Amino acid sequence: MDQRLIEMLVCPLCKGPLTLLRGAEADLPALACRADRLAFPIRDGIPLMLESEARPWDPEAASAPLPLAP
C-alpha cells in the first residue's frame, strides 16, 4: 500500500493512527490499531476497515524478538 494512503487512514473505532503489518507480523497484510489491539486485513490491496473483519492483535507480542533456534 502507498505510505501516503496509510497516513491518511485512521482506525474506524477510535480514530487513532494505524500501522502496516506484513511479513512475519501477520498472515496477511493488515493495518493495526495499537489502542484497540485490532488488525484490519488488506485483501487485494483494499483495507477492510470494518469492526466485523478485524482480528485481535497483540502489539507487545508482535514487537518481541523471535526465539533463536537451537
UniProtKB/TrEMBL annotation:
| SUPFAM superfamilies in the cross-refs | Trm112p-like
Q: Which Pfam families match?
A: Trm112p
Instruction: Determine the domain of life of the protein's source.
Output: Bacteria
Q: Which family does it belong to?
A: Belongs to the UPF0434 family.
Name of protein:
UPF0434 protein ACG0Z3_10025
- Organism of origin: Pelomonas margarita
- Database matches in HAMAP family: UPF0434
Where is the organism placed in the taxonomic lineage, from the top? Bacteria, Pseudomonadati, Pseudomonadota, Betaproteobacteria, Burkholderiales
InterPro entries (UniProt xref): Trm112-like (IPR005651)
